[in-house]
Amino acid sequence: MILRDKLRAHLMTAITSDTAHDVAHTDRVWANAQVIAQGELHCDMAVLVAACYFHDLVTLPKNSPDRASASTMSAQAAAPLLQEFGLSAAQISAASHAIAAHSFSANITPKTLEAKVLQDADRIEALGAIGIARCFATAGIMGGALFHGLDPFGRDRTLNDKTYAVDHFAIKLLKLPDTMQTVSGRLLALDRANVLREFLDQLASELDIAPSDW
């Protein structure tokens, strides 16, 4: 796809140290989105690919006070670029909405099919083996620990995913399937959430403790 190549080439000029939101992440979100779109009603694929590749055009650390505004900032930054790439005013508006609404922290309700597909595709990245890798990579960037050494599953303490990566499974990741906007996205999310549970079971086995009830 010529448009996809242009979008990706632009991203390649940006340098990011955030391995959870690099070009490879964007490629995977686009792959997820195509799978989801096949199971839904007709999508404007130009809008969808534009939104997928520019959804993290502006990235901020998870502990930044402006984190909730990052997706809106990405949408604003994307609009003039998408005009240069030949999208119509209506397509730019639709892509901008999808970009702004994709973020969990932004808490913006997706109103179009493209926005729903992008939100699902991005959230699926937080599940499965890739989601586990991204979770620990992000925890490392933020200076967090892998898990609480004495109480990994928070049976006798308050969960804190800013300090312990594994806590993030219960606080957010395992809840993501219930937030999916499309039927196709939910099926993918449920399948990949099981990978997280298998990881937790293996962790419990290696630590010789009771399995998590998350």
What does this structure look like?
- The chain has 214 residues and is an all-alpha fold.
- The chain is built from nine helices and no strands.
- The chain has two domains: 109 residues, Orthogonal Bundle (Hypothetical protein af1432); 89 residues, Hypothetical protein af1432 (Orthogonal Bundle).
- α6 packs parallel to α9.
- The longest helix has 25 residues.
- The termini are far apart.
- The model has no long low-confidence stretch (mean pLDDT 89).
Topology:
Layout: H1 2-12, H2 23-38, H3 45-54, H4 70-84, H5 89-101, H6 113-124, H7 128-141, H8 167-171, H9 183-207
Helix pairs in contact: 1-3, 2-3, 2-6, 3-5, 3-6, 4-5, 5-6, 6-9, 7-9
Low-confidence stretches are: none
Radius of gyration: 18 Å
Relative strand content: under 5%
Tally of separate domains:
2
Determine and state the CATH class of the largest domain: Mainly Alpha
CATH fold-level label of the largest domain: Hypothetical protein af1432
Shape: elongated
CATH structural architecture of the largest domain: Orthogonal Bundle
- Classification by helices and strands: mainly alpha
Helicity level: 55-70%
The description of the largest β-sheet is: none
How many β-strand runs?
0
Average of pLDDT = 89
User: What is the string of helix and strand elements?
Assistant: HHHHHHHHH
Terminal-residue CA separation: 41 Å
How many helices? The count is 9
List keywords for this structure.
single chain, 214 residues, mainly alpha, Hypothetical protein af1432, 9 helices, 0% strand, elongated
